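Tokens help. Consider this.
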Amino acid sequence: MCGIAGIVHFAGGALDRVDRARRMSARLRHRGPDGSGEVLSPWAVLEHRRLALVDPGQGAQPMQSPDGRFSLVYNGELYDHEALRRRLPYPFRTRCDAETLLAAYATWGADCITHLNGMFAFFVWDARLRRGFAGRDPLGVKPFAYRWHEGELAFASEAQALLEGVRARPRHWAMLEQLVAPAFSGVEAPMFEEIEYLPPGHCLEVSEAGPVTRRYFHYRVESTPAPVPAPAELRDALGRAVDRCLTADAPLGLYLSGGLDSTAIAAFSRHRATLPAFTVAFEGMADYDYDRSLIVASDDRPLAESAARDLGLPLRQVEVPRSALAADLERVSRTNDALPAWEQEIAQDHLAQAAACEVKGVLVGDAADETHCGYHFLLDEAATASPRAILERFGSVPIRSDVLDDPIGHFARKYSTWTNPDGDRAARLAGTIGLIVDRWLPRLLHNGDIHAMRWSLEARVPFADLDLLRLAQAIPAATALAGGREKAHLREALRGVIPETIRGRRKSALPKDQGAEPVYRAEAARLFTEPPAVVDELVDLRRVRERLRSPAALHERERAAIFRVICLTHFCRHHGLA
């Protein structure tokens, strides 16, 4: 729901920066084509682009308190805002959750962040104290990037907007992380030097002394036996979470893969509305041998069709032609300012483009696997013993030896601060899940947001509901993986809610084009002849070219590696990174 941007200048020169702030906002127009607004003062310029899903007539931003003290720009949805506003002594003028958030800050100050249940990134300027406050939701569904330089704070919903008026410089270690450890990349910092991300579950206070961040939410699963939420309690909480996500004054839909999570959301949504469902298909999906696949376990289409039929939902099949793949590679590279990490981002892009033709928001199953132990590799002792085993499972781009002589080992050591290799199985699992929630999940959520908002579509995440997260944290991994099944406790909670064929289905990733190799080879031959300097400095292109000269078919890890180098090449050219 929107794009936000702003410049705060503590020496009183904000009005001299209005043109730059407006150009930053223009870069975010795709996030909010329904309207724009700004607040101007000598100390702060706030810009807003609106995608109107709630109270479209009255919810324009930036929003100011009646006395003019507080000004807010906000991106997201507060799922419980109607209940929250009943607790607030405030003269409400709209039905919009933005005003609920403004009232919460005016009432509780920085402590308001602990009262919010939803997905959000926001900034509040206090004109009386000349201080700013920003907050980001617990899991990082909504983005917040910022730059502090010589008494000036600039912020925006996307890092690329902060390049306005600034020479883009590559952050080499972040690019290396995308090449070697894509699932954990693009979270700690953007790909551009001097720009930072406010981490998930953090807030930021800024004064003339500079920005100070603090963590207000920390997701950690139980590693020891504890009272475990009953399946019925978990089921009811998910139902309420879906219900909250259905509040809108604009049409909504949902993504439906025929998997456990998306089908559960579809099932719980039926009592409020019959939502159109969208599923994606690539050429040759039905004929592919999925025993050869690393993470895509089956063809989604038959199961999505079955789920839609059983639930009485209209299903939209989104066909992705291979003839468009070269253009798709360039588009997702330009769109994703954290650099594309997975080939499945092409599926996300096409799903969002198709859905945006009919609806303004979609409910998605993101965050379920990470918070309910949905990954099959969690059952593998080796994969939970060290981050290295997880990285090796997915493969790495060849890196120049003068840059890193052991790329996987380098990043495995970095991530080992989360894990507990000397602990028992429960402790190792808890550590691995902590790494997945802190680093893997925000990357996945970033991709979901940025590809949806590229087409002015809001992706709502019921599994990120705070009440549901609190229950998930109380489920020990041993219970979540009982009987050698991923998401065992959630599966039990959904007994009788979704069809049994889907409730028992093994986790399968979003589809990708398994026949993409010829396109990748052609694009690599075209792009790697004169690659950008950054690509040449980081990637061992000699080894890459050598492999591509071989007629032997690329295995899945190699295809994924070539995908990432192609995307890095497009990214560097688009942003002028030398």
